[in-house]
Amino acid sequence: MTIDTHIHEFVPAQTPGTPTLLLLHGTGGDEQSLFPLAPRIAPGAAMLGVRGNVSEHGSNRYFRRIAEGVFDIDDLIARTQAFADFVLSASAYYGFAPSSLIAVGYSNGANIAASTLLLRPGVIQRAVLFRAMLPLEPEQPPALQGTQVLITAGRFDNLIPHESTDRLAEILRDSGADVTLSWQNVDHRLTQDDLHTAHQWIAHQTGAQKDG
Ligand code: MLT
Fold first, then answer.
1. Overall pTM surpassing 0.85 (yes/no)
2. 2 domain-assigned
3. Domain membership flag for residue 1
4. Which of 5, 11, 127, 161 is most buried (CB neighbours < 10 A)?
C-alpha cells in the first residue's frame, strides 16, 4: 500500500459521522483548491484533496489531453487505475470506509471521478460531478448498482458538450447507478447554486444512509 503516488492533503472530520469528501480540482488547481468550498457542501466533513499528476504547461491535471475535450485515452486509463489504487490506499491509511467517501470533482476533477466510476466501479460509491463530460466509452458496462451520482451542468458551458454530459448520465444509469442530472442556466464556472444543490443532495444521501 502506498499513498505516495499522489500529492494530497487530508483534513480529519470536525463533526463525527460526516462523510469524507474526495476533492478533485479543475485544470490548473491543486489539492487545496476545493477546500474553501467543502464546508458549504458538507459542513464538518473530512477532506482529502488530491493533486492531478499531469502538468500541462504548468497546470495540474489528472490525465493528458490532446486538445480541449479530446483526451489521450491510454493515459486516461492508466491514470484512472493509479488514481483508484491511491483512493483505496488512502482509505486504509486514513481510516475511512469507501462507503463514507463522496467524490466532489470540478471539470477535469469531475472527469477523473467519472472515469473511475466507469473503469473501477465500487472505488467511488457516491459522487458530485460539477461540469462533467463522458471521459471515455467503457468497453464493458460497469456494475454500478448502489452508486449515487449528482451531475450539475451548465446550459451555457462552452467547454463541456451537452451531449457528452447527457451520454455520461445515460451510461451511468444504464449501469445501475442512481443519477441526478441538474441543468442550470450557467457557464463553466461554479456558482452558489452548484454548492447549494450539492449540499442538499449530500444531506439527503447521508440522511438516507443513517436512516437506512
Ligand atoms: C478536461 O480536460 O477534463 C475538460 O475539458 C475540462 C477541463 O478543461 O479541464
1. yes
2. no
3. no
4. 127
